[in-house]
Design a protein that fits this description.
Elements: H1 10-21, H2 26-40, H3 45-52, H4 55-58, H5 69-72, H6 76-91, H7 98-113, H8 125-129, E1 134-135, E2 138-139, H9 143-148
Antiparallel strand pairs: 1-2
Helix pairs in contact: 1-2, 2-3, 6-7
Length: 156
Amino acid sequence: MLGALPKSAHPAAKKHLAEIWNAEDKEHAQAAVKDFQVAYGAKYPKAVAKVVDDLDELLAFYDYPLEHWVHLRTTNPIESTFATVRHRTKVTKGPGSRAAGLAMAFKLIESAQARWRAVNAPHLVALVRAGAKFRKGKLIERPEESAATGEQPAAA
């Protein structure tokens, strides 16, 4: 998204983006998106489109347990793991063969795994896999009752 903005707009845009993904819940994040649209929509519609067009995917982590948000907000574990693979293949001028490349990537990722941080609240992973619904990061015990009261259950 920052690539669609001039460098001079990056600091303010980064603050707006941080307000979106650090919002306390999905509703606050959607309000922050609207603020972002107001601030940048007229002058930089391509940048705004990059956020708004994929908004459901961008905010999907809010439909999971609050304890997991810290893990879902970032792609850093993936990026840093593959940065090691990319660095190694660059230094060796390529992996040689496909089999050698796969073996090297496997060993580097296996090594990196030892340094990965454990998931917060691992007991909730089974609930997520079973299709449990969460709203504002909290488990909805009876989704059918929340629908009857007018409260929208979160989609996983």
